[in-house]
Amino acid sequence: MSETAKKPRAAKNAKAAAPRLAVWKTYKLYVGGKFPRSESGRVAEVTDSQGTHLANAPLASGKDARDAVAAARKAFPGWSGATAYNRGQVLYRVAEMLEGRREQFAEEVAAAEGLSREEAAAQVDAAVDRWVWYAGWTDKVAQIAGSANPVSGPYFNLSTPEPTGVVAVLAPRESSLLGLVSVLAPVLATGCTAVVVASEDRPLPALSLAEVLATSDVPGGVVNVLSGRTRDMAPTLAAHQDVNALDLAGAAGDAELATELEVAAAGTVKRVHRPAVPADWTADPGTGRLLAWVETKTVWHPMGM
Hints:
The protein is an alpha/beta fold. The chain is 46% helix and 17% strand. It has eleven helices and ten strands. The strands form three sheets. Strands 7-6-5-8-9 form a five-stranded parallel beta sheet, sandwiched between helices. It has a three-stranded antiparallel beta sheet with strand order 3-4-10. The protein is globular and about 85 Å long. The N and C termini lie far apart (106 Å).
């Protein structure tokens, strides 16, 4: 073959080797098992610890928060009615999927929190372990929160824990994955459903976790993830009559906001969990957050003659 005949093929190969444009990821909310954009259509720029642009995250509104509450309420009977063993198996499956996407989460955590790759990987490993730990508690929490009570009379008196209902969770701002898992997993383990407000400054790991939940066995609506400005959504959730409890982990560093939300929550007699400042998310979590989201039902039953 002549040199002239070879030229068109060489030109074609050179064209094929040209660099391609990267496909930027579009992050969305997670509500009712679906991935809607914010009803406002607004987004906010998310940057890494050095100020470099990473992505655009949706800015959820008060209406998005109300839609998330409606989805969580709809999902509550099915999730709370499942056996504790089944909930544990479902949550363990989430841990398996987190482990399978370890590298992605390590990259997102490193960028969000300014950690080295090794430090971020350790945070992801701790988050997976924490999720497994809470999954194991689903069928054991009744043993520490329930009791057979001594009474005077021919009766049995038994106390058993039941899930509180819909819990609004303000995720920690500084710990984008481990802190998030530490506040979300106990809500689910006790049979409650959740509306999560992701870290305002570091929302990407939470939005990626929503993708894991969507492809796991967790029913749609059990977890709903919102991103945006905490002050745009938190007051709506705190005052919402269909929200039964409120976790103020994401407002721990803002005493004024935390107090404002506690006052709003009092109007509908919500349970409110206000953690200590600063929180150490690497420490042994104990059972405090499990017991924060259960109610105690006491039953009297006459003994047989």
